[in-house]
Amino acid sequence: MSTKTTHQDRHLDCIRMGDFFMILAHSTRMRIFCALQNGPRSVTRIAEEAEISVSNASQHLRLMRDRGAVISERQGQTVSYGIADQRFFQAANLIREALDDRNSVTECSRFAVCTQALTEADQTDEAHSIESIHQPITH
Question: What's the half-sphere exposure (Cβ side, CA atoms, 13 Å) at 37?
Answer without folding.
Answer: 20
